[in-house]
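Posting this for the archive.
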Amino acid sequence: MTTMLRFFALLFLLAPIPAQLKLGSLFQDHMVLQADKPIRIHGTSAPNGAVRVELAGKHTQVAADDQGVWRAELPALPPGGPYELVVDGNGALVVRDVWLGEVWVCSGQSNMWWPLEQTDQGNEAIAAADHPQIRLFTVPQKTAQAAQTEVAGKWVACSPETVRRFSAVAYWFGCALQKHRKVPIGLIHTSWGGTPAEAWTRPATLAKDPVLQPIVTRWERIVDEWPKAKSAFDERLARWQEAAAAAKAKGEKEPPRPSAPPGPESPHRPGTLFHAMVAPLAGITIRGVIWYQGESNASRAWQYRTLFPAMIRDWREAFGQGDFPFLFVQLASFRPAESARAGWAELREAQLHTLRTVPNTGMAVAIDIGDSKDIHPRNKRDVGERLALAARAVAYGEKVPGSGPLYRDHVREGRGMRVRFDSIGGGLEARGGELKGFWIAGKDLRFVPAQARIDGEGVIVESPDVPEPAAVRYAFEADPVATLYNREGLPASPFRTDETPASTRDAR
C-alpha cells in the first residue's frame, strides 16, 4: 500500500461513523398505534440529519437535533391495518404488521399485575384467547433515578400462549372494549405489586405540594442513612447465615432472615417507577390509562386525596396530550388487620373524591367482588369489564352507565333521610334480598344500622333509634355488606355524608 493510500485509509478509520438510524423501543412489529389522533413517532439518527417517516400513505420529514434525537408527527388516521411503518434517514427501517386502533396504558400494583392464569375462569379464558387484533406489551419491572427514554419488552398478538401471564384486568378490559369498538386494541401493561402511588409520580411534583413534601423528605432521609443501614444489615445477614447453617446441621428450623433496608433503588422511592416504567411510554400517542392501585397507600388515605390527583396531573403533563381519560378501580372489599380497616374505607373515599374533582376520570366500583381473606380477589373479569364501561362513557362518549350509583346529596324527610344518586342507569335495585349496608346517626354521629328502602331515584334511610337523623353512611367499612346497584348490575360506591376527621389525617 502506498503512503497516500495508507493516509486515506487512516482518515477513514478515524472519521466519525454516522449514527445509526433507530426507532424508539416501542415501535416494533405487531404494534398498535393510536387511531384518530395525531401519531407521534420518535427515534435517533445522525445529528441534524433528515428523517422521513411514512405510514398508510401519509408521510412527513423532520430533522434530528444536535444530539441526534428526532420526533415526527403524522396526521390522525382511522382504525385499520396491517400497515408498514417506514423510516428513512442514514439507513432505512421497516416496522411490519402495524395496526391503527386504541392504545391504553394499564398500570398499578399487584391487582393490576395479577396474571390471567391465576384468576377465576382463567384457564377457560386462556384457551379461548385467540384475538389477533388485541396486541400486548409488558414493561419489565425496573427502577431508575432519572427519566428513561427506552424500555425493554415486545409486542405480541393475544393468543393462549402470550396471554397466560398477562394482566387479567387489562386482558378483560381489552376484550370488552374490542367487542364494542370493533377496532384493534393495544394494551401496554406496566405495574409492580406492593408499590405506592408516589413511586409512580415525579419527585418534583410531590415537592411542590406541602401535603406531599413529607414523602420526599422522608425518602431523602432514608437514602442519606442507607449506607449505614446497609452496613448494619450486612452484619445481621452474616450472623443469620451462621445461625441458619447451624440450625440446618442440627435439623432445626432456621431463624427468620433479616429484611434488607430500603435504599436508593427501592420501588417504593418517589419517582423510581415513573422514571423507568412510565417515562419511556410518554413519547407515543395513547387513548388513556386504566389504573388499579391504592392498597399500599391505605394507611395514608387522607394524603391520597392529594397524592392521587397529583399523580394523574403528572402523567398528563408528561404525555403532553391534554386531559386524556384516566380510569381507575375503587378498592375491593377486604378485611385487613383491625388497626388498618378505617384506612381502607377512607382510601375509597379518596378515590371517589378524585372522581369528582379531576376532569375526564372514571371509576369502576369493586366493593361487591372482593375477598375478605385475600387482598387479591380472583374475579378480575368484572373489574376489567367495568373499566371498559367507564371507557365507553368517558373516553368514547357512549350513552352507557359508566359506573354504579354515586352519592349526590341527602335531605331530611321526617324521621328519616332521603339519599339521592347520580349514575342510576335504568333505576336502583337491591341485589341478594333486602337493601343492606346503610348506617344512620344523629348530631352525635353515633352510627347505628339503618333500615333502607328504594323510593324512586333515591333511598329512604331511617332507624327508630335515631329520631332526628343528621348523617348517613353506606358501605363505609373495609369489608362491608353492600347490596345497592343500578339495574345494569353495577354496584353503588361507598360514601358518607358526615365530615368526621379521617383517622389517617395525620399520616404522612
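The CA atoms of residues 243 and 255 lie 7 Å apart. The first strand starts at residue 22 and ends at 23.
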